[in-house]
Amino acid sequence: MSKPLKIGPEVLKRIHEHGEQSYPEEGAGLLLGHEGNDLREVVAILPLTNAREDTARHNRYLITPQDMIAGENEAIRLGLDIVGVFHSHPDHPNRPSEFDREWALPWYSYLITSVSAGKAAGSRSWRLKDDRQEFSEETLLLGEAESN
After folding, report:
1. pTM of the prediction?
2. Which of 54, 91, 116, 127 is at a distance of 20 to 30 A from 148, taking alpha carbons?
């Protein structure tokens, strides 16, 4: 079973705002934080521009290798790690799609926000199982970040 994912309300608000601003396309970015013995904590995000071709952005996102390098550099600058990916599902539930499963990596958390008619309607977090066959839902804890 995966560790809970803790995220501060201000960080989650920024994720929701990014999804709303990206609507009706999918918005995406990186979750920056650290992993402890009992939980994984997100303390910052790196919002990204969806690099998918125009005709597919309504239901797909693409994070480029250059985005990942920028994410690693930002995480290092902040003394953090990339712990996952966030993205929005415009007018669709906050559950991973088959496409999400095909492109996911088992170590990361995947925070998905449903954006309905342009407004964030809730987020859930998922981890791909090691056999890559399915996701398991992570417990999402809302709380203030602890100092490093």
Report:
1. 0.94
2. 127
